[in-house]
Every structure is written in structure tokens, then in C-alpha cells.
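Re: the request from the purification team.
They wanted to know what the chain is likely to look like in 3D before they choose a buffer screen. I agreed to run a prediction and write the result into the notebook, where they can find it.
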Amino acid sequence: MSNWLFNFTISKITPILLKEITWGTYLLFGCTTMLAVVWTLLFYPETGGYAIEEIHTLFEGSIIKRSLHDNKYLFTRMRRQKTAEQIERANNEHHSGDSAGSLKGEEERYEKARV
């Protein structure tokens, strides 16, 4: 229903915007899209490769750190998929005040496990 509402709103407001601000309409929608891309990169971790039962563990702890970390691997074409146990262990270490839960510590553990 919200999708229909937004589509209806955009379809009604676009002709008005085109008449009043002409090319500014493109900038408005372009900036809105870029804001949505940034929002997605910052607040939504990569869920590919995880079972549906494990997805909830991705949203525990620091979502921004995890999303940025996932994006690093996304943009470098490297894939690093963690199991639910690894994510829960990292979250538990982070909540217990242990500095090993940092991203650097996770990367070191990943490299050691890979070897």
C-alpha cells in the first residue's frame, strides 16, 4: 500500500515540478536516489550467502560497521561470508568489552582461519 501511495504521489507531483523547476526535477530525484544508495550502503549489511535463520544475527551489534565492512569486500570483489556462529561470537566479544571484537580483529581471525 505504501508503494502505491508513493507511486501516486510521484505521478501527481512530477508534472508540477517539471512545469515549475524544469531541470531541477531531475536533480531532486537524482539526489533522492543518491541519498537512498548511501543509506543502503551504511545501514543494510550484505545478506547473500546466509540462511534465512541466520539473517537476524547480521542486524545485531554495530550495523554501520558491519555494512561498511561488507561493502569493502563487495567493492573489491572479494567475498567473505561468516557463519551465524562467527557473527554471534563477534557480537558477544563486542558486548563483553573485549577489543578483539573490532573489525581489525575479525579480519585477522579470518585470515588465520583461511590459512
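For the purification team: The radius of gyration is 20 Å.
Please add any questions underneath this entry.
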